[in-house]
Structures
1.
Amino acid sequence: MIFDKLGKLVTESGFAQIILSADGWKALIMIAIACVLLYLGIKKQYEPLLMVGIAVGCLLANVSVLGGFENALYHQELWDRFLNSGAYTEGYEEYLHNYGYILSEGGLIDILYIGVKAGIYPCLIFIGIGAMTDFGPLISNPKSLLLGAAAQFGVFFAFFGATLLGFNNNAAASIGIIGGADGPTAILTTTKLAPQYLGPIAVAAYSYMALIPMIQPPIKKALTTEKERSVKMTQLREVSKTEKILFPIIVTIFVVLLLPSTAPLIGCLMFGNLLKETGVTERLSDVAQNALMNIVTLFLGISVGATMVGSRFLEFDTIKIIVLGLVAFCFSTVGGLLVGKLMYRLSGGKINPLIGSAGVSAVPMAARVSQKVGQKANPSNFLLMHAMGPNVAGVIGSAIAAGFLISMFGG
Amino acid sequence: MSIAFADEIVNEVIETVAPAATEASAPPIVNAILGYLVVFIGLALLMVVIIVMGKIMVAASKKKAEKAAETAPAVEAAPVKKDLPAAPGSAGEVKLYDTDPADAAMIMAIVADKLQKPLNELRFVSIKEVK
């Protein structure tokens, strides 16, 4: 009797399932990948705030899935039925777009994942980003917006490349948006267009954002001369408080009317910024910048990481996505630099082309890298504030690019 | 103008500019170019809007400053006294070698911030650019 129960316990344990279950070895590999991501987040500090959450989500999903359906924290099958895609949909038509089944049958991470699926977390993060962003450098130098636009080149280059590699338009658009160097935008776009690739795309986006100090400098050096990198830019004009208050209102009205599909991202980004700039909503601004941002980052990381289940992640497509993501990042940098060089010529050498590469929207990492490379060429060069203009323009640019892709392929 | 109406206009523009792009079977290269163009044109238009806003604001603030200058009573500039000792606790004079005053001010502010000491408790003798 006791031996029977012990035997049952042993065979039902996750350790036994690694051998007995068909996908056991995949879960084991994913656990190893989660540990690597934890190492990168903790030891190497690659975007640790999100990377640690993603790694733990991946770890929990793959450890718990070995304990069977009832013990799993994340159920890929439920989400396949919800979307009516994948291998587990036959006979479950009533699950289509029905959150009730997720709530009643899902695990902890399934419930948290509803926030990703409904596009809530990326938008809440954008409120926090808006509340932390100073658009002053962009308002004082509006030409920065052109650099922010130029640096979306990688998005569309990678989109084209992905279609050549056999991805459909929706998946290609989600892969391309990695080049926008904006995690929440990439997550929102992928959730809407190709949710089956959310795990690899989120990991690629955040990894490459963390690797910007390694990816960008060689490209900058290859495409610019020492003379161009040494250019000292004139001081920016002071921006009044009224302008800073008007900016988010004008951008919201203008951009959302131009491309309505950008409403969630642009609306939330500018709402957060308005909270910061009005001066009368300090408490809300503080919550958006700190408590809200931290809570949502926690939920977003863990639920995105949980989508990295072995049966989906360990495919050749994942490698293609990782490579295409790098291509997208590199070509976004190239696009920004080339238009930066054009502006250098047109301005008679007054604009340092290095600020163009800050148009990829990884704020403020990309601007810091421009500052660092510029200072190497000329130690008295302070490009940071000049680079912040294209940097925050990149956030708006990637939101517009995402809006375009969603409206084109979102059905 | 409602958002749905704006959406219709955008779709109409897209259909006019690149009819192939609105079809599911449009070549990816067309979609890619169109997408890049939309981002560029969108941000270029936004740039124009911000430039106009900036010009209006600068003009308004200039007008305000002029008005304030007209209404304010003329204040005679205080006579400059030379060779006065530095005020107690002030940094005194700093010798600058190949350094802009603005850069020097920033360096002093950074040093004060790093040392967690008020600027008037520090004394900078000279700042020299290392080439």
2.
Amino acid sequence: MSESIFKNPAIIGYLVKKLHEAYPDKQIGKTLVQKMIYFLTRERIVNFNYSMYHYGPYSADVTSELNFAENSGLIDIKWVDGAGYFAEATPGLKKLEGLIQDSEKSAIDKLIGRFGSFSTVDLSLLATAYFMKDNFGTPNEKLADVIHNLKPRYSTSYIRGVLEKGGITSRR
Amino acid sequence: MATLLHDIGHAPFSHASEDVMPYCDKLNRPYKHEDYSSAIIIGPLRGVIEDHQINKSNYRIGADEVAALLEGDISILEGKLFWKVIISSQLDADRGDYLLRDSHHIGVKYGIYDYSRLLNTLVLGVDPETNELILGGHEGGWHVAESLVIARYQMFTQVYFHKTRRAYDYHLKEALGKILEDGKLPPPREIDEFLSLDDMGILQGAKSHTGDFNCKALLNRGHVKVAFATPETPTEKDEQKLEDAKKRLKDTGIWFYEDKAASGLWYKLDTEEENKEIMIIKGRDREASPLSTYSSIAKNMDEVKQIRVYVKPEDKEKAVGVVQQ
């Protein structure tokens, strides 16, 4: 049997469910899911194609799978004016969780342990840093400046703090 | 300039040849046509761009900047990367053009929408999840945004994902694997060799492999035929029916090819386009809301994930009987 078309939606649903369990008050929007899946892509747990935009790495395929997860009743996505999207796993996810391997579940759990507490904005900064390192070989010491030049409203010291907290760079 | 040149890296037969682009170890993924576009811009086109009199005396745009916009290299572009939304977003210039142009040349009306009205309603807003600037449509123009979404859906299902067009994507991909040296296109670092390939050369190559099923299909229009297809948005039950159909074909010894490209095709056809919803911008605060909060049509549009099973033309009748048992 070839890989189920519900595998990726199930992974997204599982990520949303576990994030919600770990951080019940957190807004789990589409942007946050995009960035978390980007980290999973880097670790080759999933395989999505990302391109860089002014708001960080973005994958049209992930959006497609996110929408399909919603169409298939694995997650609910609501829009709240002034706040954005709110995604939540539904009971329908349970019957498809079997498609996810234990190693994939454990990678997602580990990812949430490492990045789950970050805000969407900070995840965007971290994902941007990884994209620049991976694709253009930007050295660690230049990352904060490069990202600040893209997003001047975040100071270099703030960005540096986020990159250190995220384990991308270490304190000088 | 980046908008004009972003697709210049397409290989012969455009999207169909994307699958024979070699793997890039450094990037941990196969090359994409955008990688070839960048290589052409910073290579053979550098002088054309940088030495052009109008550019030299007015804009002084460097080839590296044009390529950086496609690649997303913020170390070169900094905040100017924002303008990538003109090349690649739900409201980008590429989509604005190709839906209308393809409709005209194919002779269909599916992709037609009010282009002038759309341009007049474009505004900037703020994404509440990230506080980032976004390109959207003005609240007063949400109906034209809706018509663009419908046009895109119709063109995708009726043209780009048409069963026969997809059959030839398969034959082209397989034939290219046979015709090209090592079965792959040359990498972007061998850009001159890449540029020497064209549609006519590939068709000529197909003539040298007339014994090959796929080359023959291209030359004689003997393409594979659909024996089974799921609905556009399959359920688990539909997926099970698909697996049953494949098993029956396998047990009967009928060769088949499974085309699962529907979702990937959105991406491929639209290059780096965003699959995001069109955002509608309202009020002085430029507050953004997705089109689906205005349009019940957009709200109820499901992802197209149709899967088709193709068989050889001579097996079609038997295969349909087998899967319908």
3.
Amino acid sequence: MAEIIKCPVCGESNPANQEFCQHCQSRLQPGSGPLKGVDAPIKPGQIPTKKNTAELEPILPQWLRDARDSARNTEQQEGQQASQKPGQTQPASHTEDLLAGLRSQAADGDEDETPDWLASITGAAPKPKKSTSESSEVRWVELGDKADFAQEETAGDAETPSWLASLTPTGSQADEKDELTEWFRDADDSKPTEKAAETPAVDDIFSTSAADDTPDWLRRMAAEDDAKKAQPPSFDSSSNAFPPEASESPDWLRQIAADSPADELKDTPDWLRGMEDKNQSTDSAAFTGPASSEVEAFDPSSKDELPAWLNDQGESAAKPLQDTTPKWLKKEAEDSGTGELPAWLSGNEETIPLPAAQEEENLPAKDEDALAGLPDWLKAAAPQASIFEQPEEKTAAEAEPADASFDSPDWLNTFTTAETPAPEKETPFEVPPAFVEEAKGETTDELFTEMPDWLSNAMDLPASSSPTPITNTDAIAPGELPSWVQAMRPVDEPLPSLSSSFVSSDQTLESRGALAGLQGVLPAVPGYSPTSKPKPYSIRLQTSDEQLAHAELLEQILAAETAPVPIASFSTLRGSRGLRWFLFFMVFVVVIAALLLPAPIFSMPVGVPREVGGAVDVARAIPADGAVLVAVDYEASRVGEIEAAAAPFFDQMIFYSHPRLTFISTNETGAILAERFVSGPLAEHYKNSGFSYLNLGYLPGGQLGIHAFAQNPHIISPLDMSLQPAWASASLEGVSSLSQFAALVLITDNAESARVWIEQTESARGNIPFVVITSAQAAPMIQPYYDSQQVSGMVAGLYGGAVFEQNNAGRPGTARNYWDAYSLGMLLAMSLVLGGGLWNLALGLRDRASAREAK
Amino acid sequence: MTFSPDLIIGVISFIFTILIFSYLIGDNPLFRIAVYLFVGVSAGYVAAIAVWQVLIPRLGYPLWFGSLNEKIFAAVPLLGVLFIFMKASSRLSGVARMTMAFLVGAGAAVILAGAVIGTLIPQVEATINFFDLNAAASRNIGFMEAIGNGSIVLAGTIFSLVYFHFGASPKADGSMRRPKVIEIIAWVGRIFIGITLGAIFAGVYAAALTALIERISSLINFFKLFGNF
């Protein structure tokens, strides 16, 4: 089934493969899409193929078809003429060309740069043209057949826009008149009066066929034209001028005319005299009052040299009742203000005979009025605007001789017919363009074929129609005017600020989508909406059994990876607080009971560990009165254990050697703990023995301080704890380096502190014995240094102190006091650990048995 | 009626001992009071030690009473102190980097050198010397004891290191397991590690038990002193 699409313009159905509509020839596909088939665009370098466009003939506009037909006829006639004149060649006309009818017009346009209608208005001298008959034929060819004109006129009457129909300017509302209309109206008055003799046919047509559709102002123009025809020209023979009220010329021109009587005609500017000459010689034979040489220079015998249409004009000019002004330029509103008429138009005629007195009174004001009434765009278009802008120069030009006209512009020279009596330039309306009657034998229908359509419609004015005043209600809405008319309308008011017309007439605000809030968004083209529902497509994945199996396997793998694995967690100990209280109670009771027992329960350790034996050897090997450096680096919380372990060592050392002890500490509390140790456990033994010691105090810097002290002890710690020079005291007599001490004793509860002292004094201490008295918790870490023989001996905890006390000749010590409690506590701990292990084992066996039973 | 210092010290020691023991019932204000007092006293004491045993004898004395060389040497650490004080300003904090760089660099050098010379090399030699029978004989260590100790130390060192080897390869069932030999050695190494940790725990317990005994003994002594009073 072939798809059918609708034309977006006419709405008719067309096959989908069509590029253009069959009915209105509009493009069916979007404009942005490429042309297809024969309509595809020509690429660069491609030679265009010759196509037969005769099939497009029906779609051409009527006027173009008429022009083409006329062009064919003209070509045939020219071919016949060419055959009669072999020496004259004519360019071949391509009848199959679409724009063949316009080509001849373009050829004429090349010769005449100024449009005929503009030349007739401005008075500019057009270039010489061909013979009248030939040009008229060509123009008929261009604009269509004569027979088609009546049809077009009728059609044009039927299609007369309402704005033209309602456009009826009146004298009472002269201020509301359109300047363009006024200008054309004035131009209509300047039409030669000889047209009036032939206009009845036109008027009859307009009055009978299109009287209702004709604008009122055009009707009034026709009515006044008829009135002029009926009324004889009121020519004042005494003054050789028309009555002032009949003149549409500006006052300043009237003033000029008043100041230039017959005897003072020599003071008249050349350009003005040229205008007079033209008026008197070509337009009206009535201007014969002031006999001048220029007027007499016009030789009627030269009539033979003039074109036929000009001869007709000349004949008609001999008639005093006929006005040479073109009909459409004939001022139909003679009673309207003269200021509305451009002075450069009205100056060609009717201005000279004005009374001088009136001109003197109104000259300045009239000049201003003429300038004020003249639209700006018309000033710019008319070269005569300089007349109004430079009146002083014009006055000065009056004193110049007549031959000074050679310095005047070309357009001014067109008025000086006496010096340049070219037959073609005697009148500005010599060329029969749109507003001049055509050659003889042609009807009035042919006249309007050369006019623009809008002007032809404007000429459709019934003679009997009465002017209708324009009211505000009849005013045309600007929006109803065609765009080209709006573009031509003069703008007197300044442009308003950016109005809505510049933006868009679409005031719709987008409320949804990405363009929400924007105004004037182009709506979607109705013709391009989808014509059918979209074809449904299944979104179900087409898979095979093998693919499904693989997918299932992948899901299993992923599920195994992401499946939570239960972690075997231990059950929390229920009643942990009770257990804690139970353990505390057990230990507390055991310790108190052991301490309160009057007799010892457990004997002291008999065996001597190797490290303790090394410490004993060092204690006994220290020479008498030897300097012993004691590093105190333990915390106050370990005082009980450390003092219990260190006291037997120092007791034996002091007992055997009476060394000079020097205390130093890398811990902030070490210095005060050393004082406590000396004044505590040691004092009990050597209270009256003259025991002396030196406390160097705190050694800052950590490992750096220890390393520096090992290298230069007297520099790093020059003062003792009481800020006295330490190295000059008796305790450090003869000692200046670390290796000069008899032994190095380190008391610490931290394995790291022991390691630092061992490492940093490795190279500085030499072969002096190094004994470490430490806590039981740090002993396992320091034991390797003893095994590596970096430490000479080690006393660890209460056990080491108890062993040491066994070698003190049976003197009681602190270790003995704590030993029973310590032993009971250790047994309790051992029993608890063992009991806990057995309990845990029993629970494990039970769970395993229950699990086995469950299986 | 006069109070001896031993009585005052005994009362204070008894009170603070009870406050610390109150932690048996959990965290409580009494325990916090004791802790805060210890922290405050310790901080004050450390500050006093820093002033009286560091700044005055090691910086003030050389600057005021020392020779020119001592003053120069004392000015260097003073300059370092001023640089570190620049940390208080965000703009001048970069100046302190010089001092900190010196401290870190010198400390790292000292620590590394001491660790290599004082621990790493001697411990490697000691592990090897366990099998040196002559050295053992010089220390009155018998052959079997030396071989046994050396073997235990060697096995404990190797097995403990193997335990921390966690390299594994996927098996056919998809599980990730270490090789069987590694698994066995690691299991033995775990025993050594357990024994070591047990020994450390025993030492910690022994130290704590000794501290407890000392505290209880002090309380008993206090009560004996209070009873005698």
